[in-house]
Amino acid sequence: MELSAIKRRLPGGAFLWTAFAALIPPLALYLPGLGGGFYLDDIPNLGPLSQPDLSWQQYILNGFSGPLGRPLSYLSFYLQHASYPAHPAHFKAVNLAIHLLNTALVYWLTSNLCKARGIAVTWKTALSCTILWGILPVHISTVLYVVQRMTLLSAFFVLLSCAAYVHIRLKRIPWGKMDYILATGWVGVGYLGVFAKENAILTGLALASLEAFFLSTLPWRPARLWRWICFYFPFLMLVIHLTVLRDITAGYASRDFTLSERLLTQSRVIFDYLKIILAPDLNDLTLYHDNFPVSRSVGLQELWSLTGLATCLTLIIKGRHRWWFPLSFALTWFFSLHLLESTIIPLEIYFEHRNYLPSVGLIVGLFFLAKEAIRRAQKRVRPSIPHTALGIMMAWMATITAVESKTWGNPLQFVSAAWYKNPDSLRTMQELSSFYLAHNKIGVAYQLQSRWKQAHPEKYTPGIDLRILMLSCLDPKIPFQWDENMRHAFLTGKLDMSVDVLQEILDRKIAGQCEHLRWQDYQDILDSFANNPNYRKNGRVFLFLKKFKTISSYVTGDLEQALTTVISDINLETVDFDYLLLAASIAYEANAKAEFRKVATIIRARYPYEWIKLGKHQRDLVQKIHSARL
């Protein structure tokens, strides 16, 4: 291939106008969805924004969604703190803007890949491919689900890195010293995305797939050592961290599936992902997949999925130097970008937003495959047929996206559609119940919770009864009685999202509500959870239970019990700063000098600069800790 063919391009202005044209369809389709509300993980992640004395350091540096804290994502949320909780549309509008930026980056990337393969009319292929990706229905639960701005921002950095890398690979052949420095910088931009979401650590694998399938035909390639360091080394470090330095199996203690069961289940999930990307159905698309069946053994479905994975691996290996290489690229990119969330890490089984970045290479690869197949069959196939097929496919995708977007834009339609699609989902039931509660239909919410509990005894979790208790705090007519049967259920029930409900009940008790629930009964509930093996083995949840009991004892004036609770049965050397601060506060209030000295010593040693994360009232206590004579 001649270098002149590589360098052909649209004039700068035409390129920008074409890229802008690619943004119009997704913009038009997503605008109706901006009127929706906050769902699922939005509230725990955005909830602190409602605190009047919240500092930006306190919010950004205390992120808990990932091991790195995701400060870039939290910073973007904090910049909109004035819009929470009254204006969810403002948050969704920013999400949409980031999606449009990502769509423009996909156009830049695709047009350069066209040049790399010597495709004459690059803008038509790039424009069609970009529009198709931008309007995929599977992206609805990423763009309109506020907290998944983390996914959008992470993808932005990765796509920017990939597009810029391909651009400089085409622009300069071979590279000089400064070109290597520039390329290394752009690769590093991709890895910066880990501060939005950890998926960006896979940037190197995305670049490696582009290099292997699209750029390897260029007259020159970067040095092998440079490629190994930039493309593979970060991922290898991640593998070592997960398998050697960190006990990855510890996270499965709080899950109802094992590592082997998760891997077996993911072999089915990955093909379900392919289906909802390439052949979406309105009934398949939903935010709630918490009841996706786990594979406990190898059955017929598992055999089919494992066979499918083996087939895909064969296609990847054999297809690199064949005319159908785009299929191998599509599969390589798709599976590589799923390595973090769809393999050994004990995350939840299924979420649609995990396909946002993997779908880029999938669509681009399949688009190039179709174009090559049409070129080879052009003497036997009329040109209008593939164009008509593409038009029908885009129309179908656009129709589903439009319907889903309109549904997400109306909270009543959203919860109704979620219930219709998946009435067996616990989260769907809870979302619908929360909707009724927000509209002061407390009795209807109770009936929904109660009937679902009776209809699905095998899916019982203590969170159902806790939510009924919370409803009884709002309406005394709703029956709730703490007795031995419920105590046994709480002692043996499966781990669920009960912590937030326990916090809400505590807040209502402090506010003078829930008069029918004695403080002693509330503490008995906490003790039941603390003695439940499913809760006790989850360190983070166990610390929350200790915090709640400590605070409840403090509120009732029992400082001795509060002090005993906060320091007993806990290794203070391993807990986080917030827990240590609570322990120091209780010890200081109780004038327990020995305990205060012990906690303050740990804070001084482990968290000398942690004060920057705090609000003013907390800094006063830290000042006392650091100024105390220990």
Features:
2 domains, 30 helices, disordered N terminus
Q: What is the number of helical segments per DSSP (H or I, 4+ residues)?
A: 30
The major beta sheet can be summarized as:
none
Task: Bin the strand percentage.
Answer: under 5%
- CA-to-CA gap between the ends? 75 Å
Using the alpha-carbon principal axes, give the shape: globular
Helix content: 55-70%
Q: Give the tally of β-strands.
A: 0
The class by helix and strand makeup works out as mainly alpha
User: Any low-confidence stretches, pLDDT <50, length ≥5?
Assistant: 1-10
Structural Rg: 27 Å
Q: Average the pLDDT over all residues and give the rounded result.
A: 87
What is the count of structural domains?
Answer: 2
General description of the model:
- 65% of the residues lie in helices and 0% in strands.
- By secondary structure, the chain is an all-alpha fold.
- It is globular and about 85 Å long.
Element layout with pairings:
Layout: H1 3-7, H2 12-30, H3 42-46, H4 56-60, H5 71-78, H6 88-116, H7 122-134, H8 140-143, H9 149-171, H10 177-192, H11 203-215, H12 224-245, H13 259-278, H14 300-318, H15 325-336, H16 358-376, H17 384-408, H18 411-421, H19 426-438, H20 442-455, H21 462-474, H22 484-492, H23 498-510, H24 519-530, H25 533-536, H26 539-555, H27 559-567, H28 577-589, H29 593-606, H30 616-627
Helix pairs in contact: 2-6, 2-7, 6-7, 6-9, 7-16, 9-10, 9-11, 11-12, 11-15, 13-14, 14-15, 15-16, 18-19, 19-20, 20-21, 21-23, 22-24, 23-26, 24-26, 26-27, 27-28, 28-29
